[in-house]
């Protein structure tokens, strides 16, 4: 996405920062990740190309499914065959590794890159533990974007983006009346959870969201306001199709790409699928990050962690990787294809689409930033809450029973 001269300059700086010597054998880096969809594969190739040109040898180990990918990483670490780097979400997923001394830090890379100055507080809180940097963030994802088909909206006679929850429901009803699938949905537990969190943030508001997820306030969970969030979440059930259970997220995105469905609530990684289909934001599809100009902007993302090793070349490879993936040129090249926004604000955004530019503008307003729930809860708690929500979504369960189950899950973990 950048001119060759700019990319070459960024690579040269990365090499200098890490002290990599081209005269030596390439620094091999086995990288485990779960970026396997069309758009994701194109994105991660940008990192591989930059790393290879900087004196490394990227050995790609793509594993479909986030849970499966993380399980493979854990098994390899425990089995003494750890990768050079592995993808985790920017969350508490890797905190146990840190506490058990199983990760190398990249403090010198973070200092050289001034990470403390260029990254949002919620990202820093996830990667900087006990004063040390244990992960290199590669993107900022917002998991609560609304993507819609321009053609579907036109067919349904919808001419504007909704400014309130009630307006959104009315638009879903119009899409249904026009013979379209109103809401493209993938009935998997993690998709149900991020859809719930989107509604929670947008309808319940930031204060209630933080009281529940950050503070584990039982009174907040049992409040009428939280019960209403559960009621509103279940209202979406009337607008999904019978084929939604078990559907992958990118297959749901394809329904919007084709115009078969009207809207999908999904993270901004979905934009990669639109790009792969040669669709243009603002022309073929639209995007909005919530209702109105002050809607909360949930901050999430991905990062590479670096398993513990004392091998000098492996450590050099980890530092080189941490440097190149966070460099400005690589950030733009990767995120323009991934659908996310860069982890730093000092990049040339001229090649980014209108959705990404909107996200970069919003992220500068700290009052709108809201940590992803996984930044506030442990993996065990997240899993327990997913179980509660999938049961509520898929069964004939009352909101009162779901509310009690949610409260118990938060209290017991």
TrEMBL record:
Belongs to the bacterial solute-binding protein 1 family. PANTHER family: ARABINOSE-BINDING PROTEIN-RELATED (PTHR43649), BINDING PROTEIN COMPONENT OF ABC SUGAR TRANSPORTER-RELATED (PTHR43649:SF28). It is found in: Periplasm. The keyword Disulfide bond does not apply. It comes from the Bacteria. Keywords: Signal, Transport. This is Probable sugar-binding periplasmic protein. Residues 1-23 form the signal peptide. The keyword Transport applies. Coiled coil: none annotated. Pfam families: SBP_bac_1 (PF01547). InterPro entries: Bact_solute-bd_prot1, SBP. GO terms for cellular component: periplasmic space. Part of a binding-protein-dependent transport system for a sugar.
